[in-house]
Automatic annotation (TrEMBL):
It comes from the Bacteria. This is Inosose dehydratase. Residues 35-294 form the Xylose isomerase-like TIM barrel domain.
Amino acid sequence: MSDKRPFRIGVHPINWVGEDVREHGADTTYETILDDIRRLGLTGTEMGRKYPQDPAKLKQELESRGIQLVSQWKSVLLSDPAYRESELAAYRAHCEFLSGMGSKVISTAEVGGSLHFDPRRTPSEKEVLRLDDAGWRALAEGLNAAGRIAREYGMKLTYHHHGGTVVESGEEIDRLMELTDPSLVWLLYDTGHAYYGGADPLQVLRKHYDRIAYIHLKDVRPSVLDEARAEAADFVTCIRKGVFTVPGDGCIDFAPIVAELVERGYDGWAMLEGEQDPALHPPYEYARKALDYIGTLIPSGTREGDGHDQ
């Protein structure tokens, strides 16, 4: 099947070890994750919290298995100008690490206003605080500045629209793209988070394709999402309930999405994501099924691409 892939497919370690729900996969070792990725025949991963933190050790473990570190999530708090200087300094340090690992894209998400990620929020609060006009301007200016830093290192800032944050809905994605410099701020297109935020994933792809430099392929269980919405559940509760799964196991129709990517010649990285309890949904098995499913959607004779420095 791999010789049919026109773009690079990797897998996120969040399938094995939760990032937002810490008990998911808490006892799983990084060796298990990396060995499973190699068994799947994949060569790309994102940074995970169980991976070695020492760059030399991490590089050794990845290279011994023929795996590339594609990216790592970077939270930013740029909607508040008071944090900009310290946030940009931290962003530079993040760029230095990823650049040293050979990564070309930086998964970047604003945490200001989020219930779970904003350090200014308190446990008693119940809703995401949406940005006002000043907040949007500050965020755009800060992202442009971070994008310049990324460019210094030969990398691209790819903005990750994300559930439970201030850039979640289709309208918020549109606004962010309108306010930021297209040469500095790219889009991390996530199918599952697009659906979770109320958008049509295919329409987001078509509308913003020229800004997309990185992709997460994730599916949604609609019955779980409906139940969570009825209960007014927050984002992390939705994860615990199992709202997300891998492509082919939820309600998103990936056939037109894959067809669009093939037709447009996308040849960057696309990461498989499930973000669910690995005890209930064995990561290797689910990733294998997702790969098989995506393989059925790629036209016969399509040749695998080598990826490019997106």
